[in-house]
Design a protein that fits this description.
five-stranded antiparallel beta sheet; 128 residues; elongated; 3 helices; 5 strands
Length: 128
């Protein structure tokens, strides 16, 4: 009788642990989709020469905000945007964004952090 109770206890323990892992993976997949949709929204706004959604999602230093403000001086509707697929590790992500002005392409390293149910840009630096 004790062996049966012990076996049932082990089965319940392993079943509950495996279901926690699946829930954890599903939550991270949902976070990945949120970042991808946010990047698509920012890209659409930038093609319309609107920096509002980009500025609202930024949580960066003053120097990096200056770089974003310099972008507003240009007509972004003629710019081609290139986004790499974001690499996500837990609640942080990063990718590279390319801005094509004619024949020149400027690259930026962008880092994100998932805070309070929303992705925030925490680092926006030009790549050299």
């Amino acid at each position: 009788m004790i062996k049966k109770i012990y076996v049932i206890f082990l089965i319940i323990l392993t079943a509950s642990c495996s279901s926690l892992d699946k829930t954890k993976d599903q939550n991270f997949l949902n976070i990945d989709d949120k970042l991808t949709s946010k990047l698509e929204l920012i890209q659409k706004d930038l093609k319309l020469n609107n920096l509002r959604s980009l500025k609202e999602s930024m949580d960066v230093s003053l120097k990096e905000r200056y770089a974003i403000n310099k972008l507003s001086e240009y007509d972004l509707s003629a710019v081609k945007f290139y986004f790499t697929k974001p690499e996500i590790k837990k609640n942080q992500g990063e990718n590279i964004i390319g801005l094509g002005f004619g024949e020149e392409i400027f690259y930026f390293n962008v880092e994100y952090k998932y805070l309070n149910g929303d992705w925030r840009i925490t680092k926006f630096t030009e790549r050299r």
